[in-house]
Amino acid sequence: xxxxxxxxxxxxxxxxxxxxxxxxxxxxxxxxxxxxxxxxxxxxxxxxxxxxxxxxxxxxxxxxxxxxxxxxxxxxxxxxxxxxxxxxxxxxxxxxxxxxxxxxxxxxxxxxxxxxxxxxxxxxxxxxxxxxxxxxxxxxxxxxxxxxxxxxxxxxxxxxxxxxxxxxxxxxxxxx
Length: 176
What we know:
Helices cover 36% and strands 16% of the residues. The chain is of the alpha/beta class. It has a six-stranded mixed β-sheet. A hairpin with a 5-residue loop joins strand 5 (158-162) and strand 6 (168-171). It starts with a helix and ends in a 5-residue tail after the last strand.
């Protein structure tokens, strides 16, 4: 049993392995759990009470994900978020640093933001990032992640997007 435990511990990535693994990447995270679908009819970007928001489970989920990312010692050089309250709250509850709202991460689902202009801003921002810099975290929506990476993730899901190759894969938070 001790030998198996030693082998399991030896196979875990070191902090340096984890840090290096994310150089030149963007971590796209879908906001934590916000029950429902879409946004209410009276949606206003300036009024969180008109939006679909995180519940207690979603807030706890964001904190757990932030703790896992911090424990993995992933160097994050910047954190960006959609202007939606559920994304901003998720990004803040991660507890990983200052959050910068960025409209290139806004949701164009239900036409609350213009799809082509939003994605153009996001692509321009992605092109401005260094492929040799620490990871950048972007908290956004499923529709935005899917448009850039081709992948769909559940609430709180994270996609690793390689800036050099444009390839993407889902990050298993349980492997951190």
